[in-house]
Design brief:
The complex is a heterodimer. Chain A is of the alpha+beta class. Helix content of chain A is 27%, strand content 37%. In chain A, the strands form two sheets. A four-stranded antiparallel beta sheet of chain A has the order 2-5-1-6. In chain A, strands 3-4 form a two-stranded antiparallel ribbon. In chain A, helix 1 packs antiparallel against helix 2. Chain A is globular. The two termini of chain A are 13 Å apart. Chain B is mostly helical. In chain B, 71% of the residues lie in helices and 0% in strands. Chain B is built from 20 helices and no strands. In chain B, helix 18 packs antiparallel against helix 19. The relative contact order of chain B is 0.05. The chains are: A alpha+beta, B mainly alpha. At the A-B interface, helix 2 of A face helix 1, helix 11 and helix 13 of B.
Amino acid sequence: MKFLGYTLGDPSVPMPEQTPEHYQRMGAFVEEATKAGVLLATGGLADLNEGVKVSYHNGEYTVLDGPFTEAKELIGGWALMECRDKDEAVEWTKRFLAIVGEGDTTIRQVYGP
Amino acid sequence: MTDSQAHAAIDTVIRLESARLIAGLAHYTGDIGLAEDLAQDAVVAALEQWPAEGVPRNPGAWLMTVAKRRAIDLFRRNSELERKYAQIGRALEAEGDGVTPEYDRAFSDDIDDDLLRLIFTACHPVLNVQARVALTLRLLGGLTTAEIARAYLVAEPAIAQRIVRAKRTLSKARVRFEVPGTAERPARLSSVLEVIYLIFNEGYSATAGDDWMRPALCAEAVRLSRVLAQLAPAEPEVHGLSALLEIQASRIAARTAPSGEPVLLLDQDRARWDRLLINRGLAALEKAIDLGGERGPYALQAAIAACHARAFRPEDTDWSSIVALYGVLAEVMPSPVVELNRAVAVAMAYGPQAGLDLVDELAGESALRAYHLLPSVRGDLLLKLGRGAEARAEFERAAALTRNERERQLSADRARAAGADGAG
């Protein structure tokens, strides 16, 4: 089963500065999750304000540049995990959060095409 | 957190830590049977303590430390095992008595190597294939004997027995807990790859087992191949197997109709193929070839699967490449089944008569005498050549030879349809 884990937060609050030690621990964690065959893909997202919204309504496209005022948005990173069940995805997410410090990560099962 | 959430969390942590724990303990004791017993003791302790005290911050280290203490207790009571436990004793003294807070200290520095040793030991050729499969699923996959029994439609005590006997055989044969040396390595590695491949196939094909466990077997085999690719990255065939399994797994959603009927490769809705898995498979195949493994049996099968994966429509399939790849595969792994597959590819590339000529050369092969796909392929080619009556006889033979009910039905239907064509 595939799960997407992502972090929701207030995009107007700047991300805390990461120390080299943080990066090193995160690197070790990513290596462990990859070696366990769990981590399929992971990535980070640029600042929401640099994003673009593309809408299509009534046959019209609207392209809107940031900044946006959203209370909660996907911030930071995301990870696509392959786990045997949701409990495993929860456990890996706990381990991830233990490294990043505090945060709220949402886990959603991903269905195939 | 509710009680059931807490229990699920504990079970999950234990399952995730299980293989590393057993691998680390086997490194200390040199005996995987003993390692599993010690790990089990630690798990029992965790199930007693964690619900009340919470899961420790570093559960793997906690389990390892408890298991090692248990080993010391056993040692004190059983002098026969002195030699084995003396090692652990020294290691524990060096660490001090407290629960070590970091993995680095509870596990040996090379836990990855221990895991690789565990894979090689569980798949040791001194064991028969069934025993290797059961032991691998138990020790590396963390599946319970009940889950393994369910997957293979075997009674649970039989699986438990199989695992006990396997561990006894390893112990009797004095199989050392190590990664094999250069001379032994190719044969030992191919034994490991075979086990992972068989686990996948058991889930992928419809020979037995219940529908609930089958996807789990496929998923476990793919996971094991990914783990192995990380642990033994220099071995081309490891990537070859990984590529093959990723690409085959990419088709899982498309290969069964909503009614449960199998859908043949050329009839599958390719929009439902999982592109992420295909890309992972193609990348793994590239790695295998970069490492000089293009003539490895798994890499070749992956390359054939890749020809299908790259074709967005069946008519885009590069059949002449597939013919060439089957030709090489037949050289490195001669088998009438490979020849039969090559004949099918030849028919697709160069017309049904060319394929039929090859199939007819195979008709005398004793290995294929009871193989239902031979008459099935022959019937298919005869039908394409407009020889309906002969095709009908072949499909009837195919129906009589298969033991799978769905395949029997399919062949019987084709026989009827071919008969109708022949009459018309």
